[in-house]
Design a protein that fits this description.
Largest sheet: 4 strands, antiparallel
Number of helices: 7
Number of strands: 8
Shape: globular
Strand order of the largest sheet: 2-1-4-5
Radius of gyration: 17 Å
Order of helices and strands: EEEHEEHEHHHEHEH
Structural class: alpha/beta
């Protein structure tokens, strides 16, 4: 079996003034696995996903990435977030630039890539998600499925090892959902570890290695 890439050891998390979202959870995820977190809305799925790239820090217990405990200083989180790409449920919250090209280039530019390298990684990422020729399009003119693909391309441009998707098919029609799940399969075949959350059991079970 391949080696462990993400691990949680007895993690807990309570929202300020709120309910306990995560209570003593331990698990591990191996490289190149396809993992579905299944549960109803409010079960704590998004909270758990946000721990994988350090957006949320557990109140107790340890999160590990590649067998090292996650460190929460700015420099360590920068490195972690290059390796763990996160695609939000609502692409409108993730897409910030006036054109598709600028949006997908945002992460690589932040990593200090040269103009030439940015062009290369952006065109590769857009080709990957089937949006070649969309570079100059304003994101607000795109369909829900296309926006979702732009958000995925923005994460792919940084070439992460692990891709985390919060409800990747939410708001999409059945055909759009199928397209996105096929894209996730392709990315997995290329060696990416894929973790997604969903409340849709029918979607999760045929797709995931483990749920």
């Amino acid at each position: 079996m391949s080696s462990i890439i993400v691990e949680a050891r007895e993690i807990r998390y309570r929202y300020p003034r709120g309910m306990e979202a995560i209570r003593d959870i331990s698990f591990h995820i191996r490289k190149k696995e396809k993992i579905a977190l299944v549960g109803p809305n409010g079960a704590g799925k998004s909270t758990l996903l946000m721990m994988f790239n350090g957006m949320i820090r557990p109140d107790a217990g340890i999160m590990l990435f590649d067998n090292e405990p996650i460190q929460y200083d700015t420099a360590s989180l920068r490195i972690l977030r290059k390796r763990v790409g996160f695609v939000l449920q609502n692409p409108d919250r993730q897409i910030i630039a006036p054109t598709v090209y600028q949006d997908v280039a945002f992460g690589p530019a932040n990593l200090g890539y040269s103009e030439e390298k940015i062009r290369d990684v952006v065109s590769l990422a857009l080709r990957h998600v089937g949006l070649e020729g969309f570079e100059r399009r304003p994101p607000h003119q795109l369909s829900g499925g296309e926006k979702k693909r732009v958000a995925i391309a923005g994460v792919l441009a940084m070439d992460p090892d692990v891709l985390v998707f919060d409800e990747p098919t939410s708001g999409l029609d059945p055909a759009g959902s199928e397209d996105i799940m096929e894209l996730l399969d392709e990315l997995n075949h290329e060696g990416k570890t894929i973790i997604l959350s969903t409340h849709d059991v029918e979607l999760a079970y045929p797709w995931a290695d483990r749920a």
